[in-house]
Design a protein that fits this description.
Helix content: 40-55%
Number of strands: 4
Order of helices and strands: HHEHHEHHHEHEHHHH
Number of domains: 2
Strand order of the largest sheet: 1-2-4-3
Distance between the termini: 50 Å
Number of helices: 12
Shape: globular
Structural class: alpha+beta
CATH class of the largest domain: Alpha Beta
Bound molecules: flavin mononucleotide
Length: about 260
C-alpha cells in the first residue's frame, strides 16, 4: 500500500481534539491542497469560510444539533456551495444582454446549478480532509450545518445563490490513532455494481448488516437482529428531530434559490 492509500485507509473521524493547535503553515497547506481539487468547468463554485471566532464556534456547537466538540476544534471550515460569485460576475460582464443579442434566453441559477456547486464544495472538503490527514491532523464533518437555514444564513451573511453544504472540524486527535479502530463498511457487493444499478433483494439485508446486527443484538436471530437494527436506524437517523429539521431547513435553501421567499 503506498503512502496516499495508507493515509486514506487509516483515516477515521476525529471528535476529541488534543489542545495542540494547527500552525498557520499547516492551515495554508490544507487550503492550498483544497483549492487544487477538481472543480466543474474550473469555476470553483464554492467558498470557504474560516470560522475563527470562538463565540461563533460555540454558537455552531448549538445550532448544529448540540455537538460541543465543534467549539473545541482548533480549526473549523465552512464549505459553501456558491453560484453567487459567478452569477455576480455574469452580471458584471453584461452576460444577459450579450446572451439575448445572440438569440439565447438568460436564466437564473437553478437546481442543477445548486447540485453542481454542492459537488464542487464537497469535493473540495474531502480534499481538505485528506490533506489534513496526511499531516497527522484529524477531521470530522458536521452535516447538521444544513439545519437552521435562517440562523446560518444570518450568521454568515449568505446571499441567495449559496448553501452551506458542510462544516469541517480539524484538530490533532487527543487519543493515539492506533488506539481507535476503523469503523466498518458494508461489503463491496452491496455498494459497487457493474454497468447498472442493482436493487438489493430482501434476503440480502440481514447479511449486509450482519456485523452490526449480531454485535448489537446477539440474543436475536440474524433476521430479527437486522430488522431491529433497521428500526433503530430509522428512529435515530431518519425520523428523529435533527433529520426532520434538516429537511425543513434544506427546503428553505432550495426555495431561496428558486426565489420563493425573500432574499438578499
Ligand atoms: C456528510 C457527513 C456528515 C456528517 N455529519 C456528522 C456530524 O454532524 N457529527 C459527527 O460527529 N459526525 C458526522 N459525520 C461523520 C460520520 O459519522 C463518520 O464519517 C462515519 O461514522 C464513519 O466513520 P469514520 O469517518 O471514522 O470512518 C459526518 C460525515 C459525513 C460524510
Amino acid at each position: 500500500m503506498n503512502e496516499t492509500l495508507s493515509v486514506i485507509e487509516n483515516r477515521k473521524s476525529t471528535r476529541n481534539f488534543s489542545p495542540a493547535g494547527i500552525s498557520e503553515e499547516e492551515k495554508d497547506a490544507i487550503l492550498h491542497a483544497t483549492m487544487r481539487a477538481p472543480t466543474a468547468g474550473n469555476l470553483m463554485l464554492y467558498s470557504i469560510i474560516e470560522v475563527e471566532d470562538q463565540t461563533l464556534k460555540e454558537r455552531l456547537a448549538v445550532t448544529c444539533d448540540n455537538q460541543p466538540f465543534i467549539a473545541k476544534a482548533p480549526y473549523v471550515l465552512l464549505f459553501v456551495a456558491d453560484y453567487q460569485r459567478f452569477f455576480d460576475f455574469f452580471m458584471f460582464s453584461d452576460a444577459e444582454t450579450a446572451c439575448v443579442q445572440k438569440g439565447f434566453s438568460p436564466r437564473l441559477p437553478q437546481e442543477g446549478d445548486l447540485l453542481l456547486a454542492c459537488c464542487d464544495a464537497l469535493i473540495a472538503a474531502q480534499t481538505a480532509v485528506i490533506a489534513a490527514e496526511s499531516m497527522g491532523i484529524g477531521s470530522c464533518y458536521i452535516g447538521d450545518i444544513l439545519e437552521n437555514a435562517e440562523i446560518h444564513r444570518e450568521i454568515f451573511h449568505l446571499p441567495r445563490y449559496t448553501l452551506p453544504i458542510t462544516l469541517l472540524c480539524f484538530g490533532r486527535p487527543a487519543v493515539e490513532k492506533s488506539e481507535k479502530r476503523l469503523t466498518p463498511r458494508y461489503e463491496r457487493k452491496y455498494i459497487v455494481f457493474k454497468n447498472a444499478y442493482r436493487r438489493l433483494a430482501a434476503g440480502e439485508f440481514p447479511h449486509m448488516v450482519k456485523t452490526a446486527a449480531e454485535h448489537n443484538f446477539p440474543e436475536l436471530t440474524l433476521e430479527e437482529a437486522a430488522k431491529t437494527l433497521g428500526q433503530n436506524i430509522y428512529m435515530r437517523k431518519y425520523v428523529s428531530e435533527f433529520s426532520v429539521e434538516m429537511n425543513r431547513s434544506v427546503r428553505g435553501w432550495i426555495s431561496q434559490w428558486n426565489g420563493q421567499q425573500e432574499s438578499d
